[in-house]
Design brief:
Mean pLDDT: 88
Shape: elongated
Strand content: under 5%
Oligomer: single chain
Largest sheet: none
Structural class: mainly alpha
Amino acid sequence: MVLHDETFARVLRARDAIHARYAEPLRLDELAREAALSPFHFLRIFRSAFGETPHQYLTRVRIEAAKRLLLADAPVTDVCFEVGFQSLGSFSALFARRVGSPPTAFRRRVHHFAFGVQRVYVPHCYVEAFSQF
């Protein structure tokens, strides 16, 4: 499908709205209104322009934002709600499907890769007991 410049500009406005307000609950009719198109027409044009539905695009934007927050060591629960998900369980399951590992494992894997050292918790009593040797 070939998009006219004006139609493509309208769809870009809706895409920009997704990036600006991804943490809010965005519905198809709101995004279509942003593009000044009917919801059905907007859905078809958006999918044609970006290769995925507005919902899939929104989910991808939210997951990318979640990755950034997780790497900044934000708590998983806070990340879940901050990027616009309503359920921690749903967020974790979706994150694992899309990224390949649950949020905490993703953070550990990236930190391990970036720093080359895996953090290990050693109780203070062991440090004290074995530091005398």
